[in-house]
Design brief:
The structure is a homodimer of 162-residue chains. Chain A is α+β, with helices and mostly antiparallel strands and 162 residues long. Chain A has two domains: 85 residues, Orthogonal Bundle (Arc Repressor Mutant, subunit A), CATH 1.10.10.10; 55 residues, Ferric-uptake regulator, C-terminal dimerisarion domain (Dna Ligase, domain 1). Chain A is built from six helices and five strands, in the order ααααββββαβα. A three-stranded mixed beta sheet of chain A has the order 4-3-5. Chain A is globular, with a radius of gyration of 19 Å. At the A-B interface, helix 2, helix 3, helix 4, strand 1 and strand 2 of A face helix 2, helix 3, helix 4, strand 1 and strand 2 of B. The structure holds a DNA duplex (25 and 25 nucleotides).
DNA sequence: CTCTGTGCAAACACTTTGCAGCTAA
DNA sequence: TTAGCTGCAAAGTGTTTGCACAGAG
């Protein structure tokens, strides 16, 4: 069972690498060994690693790579939509003393955070198929996009991947 | 209209300040002018300020306060549950190359992020009462709490504020 | 050949820590 | 009086930037 799983994983990684190369070329980005190595490391894990963690992983098979390159590559991946930042904006912490139930919308451009309150979001059900037996202390619905002013300036108009 | 609004705002701020003082005493925390000033600044705004922004605001009426105190106080507020960090974990960025629809659970203690996929969360409706005309590009449901292992070690057992 | 990408080092921004003096209780 | 809080300064961590060289197209 383990062997079979592994093989299909490898197969899928391979496919994704090829697709990624195509995507790079289409975007006018060069297919460098460093870039491939970083992307591969990210695809092979489900651990949502930090730049440092990716660096350590890639380093094992590519000792000459630098942390800066890893950082820049991860940035590039985010820009082209091949990866996402799932934690830590890199910006400073932001605080809120409003304890009433409410949700946040964040403008990706000007970083403004808008409060809103949508009743149904207060009542979302925690699913029963969570990975392991976890204790959920807080559940949040979070929207990102462009605010009124920023949408005007940018080329983005309609919905992307909604 | 403006005057009336303002007055009720002030009234509410006053009440919250009193409640906060009580809460501090109950928690064995001293009621210092700095602490009050920081809390007041946070209650009076809806802008989800950074520590630096709070510092600038408080400084206007309390010139001798230091940024460190603001930082520490905001930390304290988070700890006692009088405020939340709504952006920027302070930790490093974390990346994910999994583009399929899925959600995240984050353990507050060990910072581990677990993927899960709950169909209904993919289909949540963006509310129509958003503050201004915003373009929503991404919507996320995000759960926080304690993972299996960390829950064992901590005193927290049941649901808090769920 | 050309231009992007890389590696190195320095600069930056934000946060945390150690310590001496201050102050609320 | 005394435990906790504040302000200052220094150190730590993660990220960004400038520049010269290397390598992909």
């Amino acid at each position: 069972m383990r062997g079979k799983e592994r093989r299909s994983d490898k197969q899928e990684t391979k496919e994704r690498m090829t697709a990624f190369q195509t995507r790079c070329r289409e975007a006018g980005l060069k297919v460098t060994p460093q870039r491939m190595a970083v992307y591969k490391a990210l695809v092979e894990t489900t651990e949502h690693p930090s730049a440092e963690a990716v660096f350590q992983k890639v380093r094992r098979t590519f000792p000459s790579i630098s942390l800066d390159t890893v950082n820049r590559t991860l940035l590039t991946l985010s820009d082209m939509g091949a990866a996402f930042v799932v934690e830590g904006s890199g910006d400073a912490k932001r605080f809120d003393a409003n304890l009433c139930a409410h949700q946040h919308f964040k403008c990706l451009k000007c970083k403004k955070i808008l409060d809103f309150h949508h009743e149904p979001f207060d009542q979302i059900e925690v699913p029963t198929n969570l990975p392991s037996r976890v204790t959920v202390l807080r559940k949040t619905v979070y929207l990102e996009g462009l605010c009124d002013q920023c949408a005007k300036g940018s080329g983005i108009k309609g919905d992307l991947s909604l």
